[in-house]
Amino acid sequence: MNKDILKNINMNCVLYLRVSSEEQVENYSLSNQESTCRKVAESRGLNILEIFREEGASAKTANRPELIKLLEYCRKHKDNIALVMFYRIDRLARQISDYLTIKRKLFELGITLMSATEPTEDTPTGKFVETLLAASAQLDNDVRGARSSQGLYQRFRDGLPIGKAPLGYQNTTVGEKQVVIPNETEFQLVKKAWDLVTTGTKSTREMAEIMNSWGLRAVWGKKRYKLRSQTVCRIFRSIIYTGVLKYDKYPNEEVVGKYTPMITKEQFYRVQDILDGRRTTPMGSKRKVDNPNFPLRKLIKCHYCGSPLTAGICKGNTKTYPYYWCRNNCLKTVSSNKLEEILLNRLKEIQPSQEAIDLFTLILKTTYDKRIKMLQERKKTADKELFELKEMMSKLVQGHLRGTYSDDIYESQKTLFEDKILSTEIVVNDSTLDKYDIESTIVFIRALLKNLARAYEVSDYGQKQVLISSIFPSGLTFDNTRLLNSEISPIYRDIQVISEPDAHLRVDYGTRTRDLLLHREALYQLS
Ligand SMILES: [Zn+2]
Fold first, then answer.
1. 524 or 291: which carries more pLDDT confidence?
2. What's the mean pLDDT in 108-121?
3. CA 331 – ligand 1 centroid, Å
4. Distance 83 CA to ligand 1 centre (A)
5. pLDDT one-digit tens code per residue, 127-153
């Protein structure tokens, strides 16, 4: 490209970095975020004008002074700024509506948003994935909210295992305090099981049989069940037995438990090695958590034992062969190419027809417009009600001042009004639905649906994760030949169903699908 032209193009950006007080951990530290953003900026020839650092702010959008400063700064210098870069979407916003609002505000100033670590390009897939990522950041935030309200997190911080006590222990209360203590009969048996598995001579299936013969059982509700190899595997994968609490949902946090440990950490890691290495470990395969060569590792589980497939590379004389297998040895190894092919075929099977996509788009649009209209109506009514309530409230106050109403009547009426006003205000606020860009959302969805297999192929590691788990919310299982248990997310199922010509003859669909079918009938009659 001509360098003189480049000179005239605005190549300035500003950075937004955020770390909340609860995640002062390395991956998220401000300096880490900053250096990642700087590298990306450098590689794209961008000049950093200003950096906004939000420290200790909560994940919610309110109370984020630096974000407000940034927006202000952008307004002032809009002609001089090409884009705002942030480390990851969940750094910027945890509510999808917030994210879209910020994006639109900047867009109006002619400024683009860019994530340093995720795709936010202006391609249809990029945009769709971006929306999904923002949605998952929101979900994560919602989960976070639910979690803290349930006090699970507090329990964890207090050094107690969350939920049911692990096999060998029991939950009980001493005075008013919840504690976890060894179960008199089970503790020694589970300890013996740990010792036996440490010898490396027993498979988890054999361990399950042995433990069952000792009388150990899994308890769900009030029922007792025989241990399955899957359950046993989970027990031997659980670090809780070493007296340390660590959960996937609180990554980077480890708490010393307030209960008697059953085994040492050394023994635990020895058992982990045994479980990992049960099958001859393929040459030179160091397992990485997110290895981009193996996008299916977390997405596909073994049909027999339920553990996620594990993967590695086998070196031949001239070539390397990536492949997947079950760590409990239930499956034949399957080459990465083969498994990808099976997945692509599965995607082709559920590929909706163009007619279905068109219809779905139309329905989406009509439903959206209807909903907007309904919300506007609701807001109008609530506005009116609010006005009347305030009017009556002021009459009440005047009446009280004139002495028409006694203090008692005044007080009780006033509380009543205040409650009503409050609940009406909530309705008003709820109904102010920000009309976001439905048109461009439809463009992404159409582009994605048009060819699911292709969308998968052109996606990178992270996008593949989002795409597949959005289609198959409960994951896929593999039984050597086919992908099973592939429950499709309701939205894809609906799209499929509306494309079947005789769909209205079938009765086992949910109400939403029936609604969609009615829509289809109506639309056909219109056209
Ligand atoms: Zn298995």
1. 291
2. 75
3. 6
4. 48
5. 555 565 666 555 555 555 554 545 677
pLDDT in tens, 408-418: 777 777 777 77
Distance (Å) from CA 487 to ligand 1 centroid? 20
Q: How far does residue 332's CA lie from ligand 1's centre (Å)?
A: 10
pLDDT band at 518 (very low <50, low <70, confident <90, very high): low
Tell how far the Cα of 292 is from the centroid of ligand 1, in angstroms: 22
Q: What is the mean pLDDT of residues 153-170?
A: 85
Q: How far is the CA of 278 from the centre of ligand 1 (A)?
A: 12
Give per-residue pLDDT as tens, 469-486: 777 877 788 999 888 866
Q: Which of 97-111, 236-250, 358-372, 493-507 has the least mean pLDDT? A: 493-507
**Under 8 Å between Cβ of 167 and 216:** yes
Distance from Cα 308 to the centre of ligand 1, integer Å = 8
**Span 158-171, average pLDDT:** 87
What's the longest Cα–Cα distance across the chain?
100
Give the class (CATH, top level) of 156-276.
Answer: alpha beta
Is the model's pLDDT at 387 over the cut of 60? yes
Q: Are 495 and 356 in contact (CB under 8 A)?
A: yes
For 3-147, the fitting CATH number among 3.40.50.300, 3.40.50.2300, 1.10.1370.30, 3.40.50.1390 is: 3.40.50.1390
User: Rounded to the nearest whole angstrom, what is the distance from the C-alpha of residue 196 to the centroid of ligand 1?
Assistant: 21
Tokens matching residue 179: 């504690």
Instruction: Say what the alpha-carbon torsion angle 351, 355, 361, 362 is, to the nearest 10 degrees.
Output: -160
Q: Which residue has the tokens 């001042």?
A: 401
Cβ atoms of 356 and 405 within 8 Å: the answer is no
Would you say 125 and 447 are in contact if contact means Cβ atoms under 8 Å apart?
yes
> Dihedral of the CA atoms 298, 121, 359, 350 (nearest 10)?
-20
89 and 115 Cβ atoms separated by less than 8 Å: yes
Cα(121) to centroid of ligand 1, in Å? 39
Query: Which of 9-18, 249-258, 310-319, 335-344 is the most confident on average?
Result: 335-344
Distance from residue 252's CA to the centre of ligand 1 (Å) = 28
User: Strand, helix or coil at 485?
Assistant: coil
What angle in degrees, to the nearest 10, is found between the helix axes of 265-276 and 229-236?
130
77 secondary structure, DSSP code: T
CB proximity list for 170: less than 8 A, separation 6 or greater:
180, 181, 182, 183
